[in-house]
């Protein structure tokens, strides 16, 4: 029998973040999170959602067809059946990405999944929850994202990236918090410090600035 998950929303969109930004994808947003970040931009995913079987989720995303699927939240790994969902998506032939807040063990996630670890910076008020052992499980296809609100966050992200030798081992993204840090200012810090990281912006919020769901 197919496992159940609580699903906040499923929709087709343009990937707004990560190295896949700009490409069409199907987004599966699961309900629930073990954190309460200071600048969380998806509070509706904390407790809003409906139960669905994995079979029903696969049926839902089958049409219109799209080769890429992003599983996000909230924090998807708070749901015990999330690894099974990821495996079933891979088995179905999708290019699967997982967005996770980096506080829960990712070692059991299907190796075919591209894992995007969001390492929390101090301004989130959740940096102390990071599961640092996850950085040892990173592969070349994985990504690490730092969401940066100020210079202290930038210095923290730079230190973590250098101390754990992330640059060159996987994709590293520095993304500004919307309305807290201008992308141009973050770009200047990256260039001044000579960091070989990707500047990420939330493309979906540029395309659909007045929507906070279904984008």
UniProtKB/TrEMBL annotation:
**What's the source species for this entry?**
marine sediment metagenome
Task: Give TM regions.
Answer: none
Q: Which residues form the Radical SAM core domain?
A: 20-210
User: Is Acyltransferase a UniProt keyword of this protein?
Assistant: no
Write down what this protein is called.
Radical SAM core domain-containing protein
Kindly give the Pfam families that the UniProt entry links to this protein: Radical_SAM
**Keyword vocabulary terms for this entry:** 4Fe-4S, Iron, Iron-sulfur, Lyase, Magnesium, Metal-binding, S-adenosyl-L-methionine
Matches recorded under CDD domains: Radical_SAM
Which molecular-function annotation in GO is an example for this chain?
lyase activity
Q: Does the keyword Membrane apply?
A: no
List the taxonomic lineage.
unclassified sequences, metagenomes, ecological metagenomes
């Amino acid at each position: 029998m197919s496992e159940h998950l609580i699903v906040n929303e499923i929709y087709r969109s343009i990937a707004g973040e990560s190295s896949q930004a700009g490409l069409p994808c199907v987004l599966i947003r699961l309900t629930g999170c073990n954190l309460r970040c200071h600048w969380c931009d998806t509070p509706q995913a904390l407790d809003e959602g409906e139960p669905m079987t994995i079979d029903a989720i696969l049926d839902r995303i089958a049409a219109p067809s799209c080769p890429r699927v992003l599983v996000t939240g909230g924090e998807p790994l708070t749901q015990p059946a999330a690894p099974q969902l990821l495996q079933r998506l891979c088995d179905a032939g999708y290019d699967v990405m997982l967005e996770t807040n980096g506080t829960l063990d990712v070692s059991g996630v299907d190796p075919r999944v591209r894992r995007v670890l969001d390492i929390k910076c101090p301004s989130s008020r959740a940096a102390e929850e990071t599961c640092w052992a996850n950085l040892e499980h990173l592969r070349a296809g994985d990504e690490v994202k730092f969401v940066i609100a100020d210079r202290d966050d930038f210095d923290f992200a730079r230190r973590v990236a250098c101390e754990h030798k992330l640059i060159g081992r996987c994709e590293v993204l520095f993304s500004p918090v919307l309305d807290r840090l201008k992308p141009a200012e973050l770009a200047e810090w990256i260039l001044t410090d000579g960091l070989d990281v990707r500047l990420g912006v939330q493309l979906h919020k540029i395309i659909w600035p007045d929507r906070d769901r279904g984008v």
